[in-house]
UniProtKB/TrEMBL annotation:
It is a multi-pass membrane protein. Keywords: Membrane, Mitochondrion, Mitochondrion inner membrane, Plastid, Plastid inner membrane, Repeat, Transmembrane, Transmembrane helix, Transport. It is found in: Mitochondrion inner membrane; Plastid, Chloroplast inner membrane. Solcar repeats lie at residues 108-191, 202-286, 296-384. The keyword Plastid applies. This is Mitochondrial carrier protein. GO terms for biological process: transmembrane transport. It comes from the Eukaryota. The keyword rRNA-binding does not apply. GO terms for cellular component: chloroplast inner membrane; mitochondrial inner membrane. Pfam families: Mito_carr (PF00153). Belongs to the mitochondrial carrier (TC 2.A.29) family.
Length: 392
């Protein structure tokens, strides 16, 4: 009888795997199939015989490369990649579940500060517009001598709209004013602040100087809008709007009237802004040191900003009263003041010390939350406006 047994390994065929009697052979080194074969190359399916599928000098013996081995490898690779992609997908879903974060790419750092300041000013002033209206009426005594009395008079005369009278002008004024103010403060403060380990560049805190510069810059740029807003709030029915008020004041009283009260305003703004930003900066540093946290949340920023606003507004309130009196001018037979000292002396003589602090309650009710909301919105906007896609 002929040779009918199965020979698994044949030393004479130099590593060929053969099945006797069936005429089938596979090359374990190169993965080539010779006609009549039943099994794939041992090297290709990775059975671990220690033979490389791509030797340095492969032998070309005219065989065909088996297509099913490629399909097998693609299938195994696909399963492995699917597992990795599935894990990455789950990780992304987990990140999304943590909360949606809004990011807007603004590469220019100066523009980011200006936009953040404008948004902060508009939001904060609109939120406290009714308190601002009551505070202005109390300062000039046009609708009563207490918060409750002024509120009832405004509601009886103009309704809810009266509480927001002049708010549009206020937003137009405050948005650029706050943008300029916060931009100047951030820029100057970073330039003057000493880095860790360095000696201070100034004998006084950098935040004091930066705050004063910020207040002066914003006041000079937006003071006429502040005067128009005050006139529209007090003189109901006299002007048809912002543009009409501007034209009438310039025509009847002269262009210089747009800057009436600028001196006391600057005198009041410098200590207010310096105190406000110094208090804000100091409270933030104290919070970081006490709680040992580098980042400060929105609620903490709101509380710190509100505390800074309370400190600064209480310290500089008499100058604010004098400024409002000078802005109103000779309306309804009111006295015209020559300068800030004359205004302060006249108010003190006629109304005493309480006259210098008339409206402090509603002023703090307005300025304290306004300062907190402003700082909170500013810091939040700076986190939303990022420099590049990686931060997003």
């Amino acid at each position: 009888m002929g040779k009918r047994g199965i020979q698994v390994f044949d030393d004479n065929k130099d590593g060929f795997f053969s099945v006797c009697g069936l005429g089938s052979q596979w090359n374990t080194q190169e993965g080539f199939y010779h006609p009549g074969g039943l099994f794939a190359s041992v090297g290709q399916v990775g059975m671990g015989f220690g033979v490389s599928p791509n030797p340095p000098n492969p032998r070309d013996d005219g065989g065909m490369k088996l297509p099913y081995t490629d399909l097998y490898l693609k299938y195994v690779e696909g399963i492995r990649n699917f597992g990795v992609q599935e894990e990455e997908g789950l990780a992304k879903k987990k990140k999304k579940k943590n909360g949606l974060k809004l990011k807007i790419k603004v590469s220019n750092p100066s523009l980011r500060r200006l936009i953040s300041g404008a948004v902060a000013g508009a939001v904060s002033r609109t939120a406290v517009a009714p308190l601002e209206t009551i505070r202005t009426h109390l300062m000039v005594g046009s609708s009563g001598h207490s918060t409750t009395e002024v509120f009832h008079n405004i509601m009886k005369t103009d309704g809810w709209k009266g509480l927001f009278r002049g708010n549009f002008v206020n937003v137009i004024r405050v948005a650029p004013s706050k943008a300029i103010e916060l931009f100047v403060y951030d820029t100057v403060n970073k330039q003057l602040s000493a880095k860790p380990g360095e000696q201070p560049k100034l004998p006084i805190p950098a935040s004091l100087v930066a705050g004063a510069c910020a207040g002066v810059s914003s006041t000079l740029c937006t003071y006429p809008l502040e005067l128009l807003k005050t006139r529209l709030t007090i003189q109901r029915g006299v002007y048809d709007g912002l543009f009409d008020a501007f034209l009438k004041i310039v025509r009847e009283e002269g262009p210089s009237e747009l800057y009436r009260g600028l001196a006391p305003s600057l005198i009041g703004v410098i200590p207010y802004a310096a105190t406000n930003y110094f208090a804000y900066d100091s409270l933030r540093k104290a919070y970081r040191k006490f709680f040992k946290q580098k980042k400060i949340g929105n609620i903490e920023t709101l509380l710190i900003g509100s505390a800074a606003g309370a400190i600064s507004s209480s310290a500089t309130f008499p100058l604010e009263v004098a400024r409002k009196h000078m802005q109103v001018g000779a309306l309804s037979g009111r006295q015209v003041y020559r300068n800030v000292l004359h205004a302060l002396a006249s108010i003190l003589e006629q109304e005493g010390i309480p006259g210098l602090y008339r409206g402090l309650g509603p002023s703090c009710m307005k300025l304290v939350p306004a300062a907190g909301i402003s700082f909170m919105c500013y810091e939040a906007c700076k986190r939303i406006l990022v420099e590049n896609d990686e931060e997003a």
